[in-house]
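On clarity, I found the account of how folds are encoded harder to follow than it need be. What matters is that the chain and its backbone geometry are given together, residue for residue. I therefore recommend that a typical entry be quoted early in the introduction. An entry of this sort, consisting of the sequence and the corresponding backbone structure tokens, reads as follows:
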Amino acid sequence: MKEWTQSERYRIYTEADKAELEALHESILNSRWRTDYHIQPLTGLLNDPNGFCWFKGKWHLFYQWFPYGAVHGMKHWYHVTSEDLVHWKNEGLALKPDLLFDNYGCYSGSALVQDDRVYLAYTGNSKDFDLTRHPYQLLACMDHAGRITKYGRPLISPQKGYTEHQRDPKIFEYKGKYYILLGAQNEEEKGVLLLFESNQIEEGWQLLGEVKVRGYENFGFMCECPDIEKIGDKWLLLFSPQGIEKESGRFEQKFNNIYMTGDFDPEHLEFIPDAPYEELDCGFDFYAAQCAAQSQFENAAVLSGWFGCGGYAYPPTDEEGWSGLLTLPRILSIENGKLIQRPAPALAEMKKEILFEAKDGTIVNDRLHGLMPVSAVIHLENPNLQLFELSLFSKNGKRGFEISYDRNTRVLTVDRSLMANQVNAEYGTVRKVRLDEGLSVLDVYVDHSTVEIFANEGEKVISARVFPEADEKIIRMGGRDINLSIYRAEKTNDDSLII
């Protein structure tokens, strides 16, 4: 692996770099692990989703981008759009770190749509000559033509009583006032959530204080990427705490994304959860989720997440010079007191010709002949299922990436321990998820180097990166009375080089 110097990590894109990025882009296009229907970087590294919103008939989504390699270097924002959350178009570089207040990176942030424009609140990572960090919360504005202009002064300067870790502003409006929810670390090195208020977007921001979550005193050593959404008459609070303890098969990632539903009282700086916090995703690779500023889905939120995690390495693609994806967009609702996460509706249209079909355990259509499609949508439906096994990317008759379910225990198990390319195995290679009412429906989205599993139409979601070698090409299945369909998936992402 390449060793990166400080100066190499902290390059800012200029027009003179275009030929270099064209060569980098060309070198990764034929990677076996490039995807068909996930947002992926043109070059280099992608991490957090940013500025997600619906504006002027399109979904706008930005991602953290270091253009030059698979490392966390100088962060830019890259812009993609979609009309349906499935077919994505590359729009080009959106933000680059060219101010004193963001001279070491345009870090994560969110969007607020108002007055025929999109306001983008983000963290400017600023460092002085001795590399001391000073975090500023900054504002940019996108007009109806997609032109983005930065404001010249910070909305919020570094707050006293907290360390240099103050970042990821969530900007929103509530009852005629504007708020920013900010992740931070206090001087005791504990993760906290700060709430700011203003009567105007562009100025006047004042710290109200720390948002307390009733029943909790500790959220690790840092809270990143906070988000808060109103869904019906309930609030959804989600964020990424760093340093919470693993407990009985849950929260096994290095860093986790959690959520709570409940009531929010900004006046008294309190969130009152209905139940203990839960994992937003029960899989191996999920972090920094963000909900869109949107009005398209009523009584729902629309979410995207980083298909990865801070501190993780993905050698198969890192060695090719690129890293990172975004997860499939999810529509979030609260039903019977539970958070439900469904794939975006238009993903159903992505299913093309059927490659395999079994009804009541009998194969009625088989165009696969045991060969694993690298891009597919798999649908299982059988409320009477006793035991089920599905091995993707297996080799020589052995298990590959295995999904199994036992009705006696109501446990869905996902095991990637036998894949040739092991990634971040120190954080576990098996996930077990209990389904309260058992398994009735399973939808599995496979895309070259990803597997996303939606159990019971979004009761639980399990996301995993997987890097099959050329000889890991067999699909195996077992179980009585299976109703199983496998479809070829349409290519919906844009791999054109737009800078």
In short: The helical segments are 6-9, 18-28, 315-318.
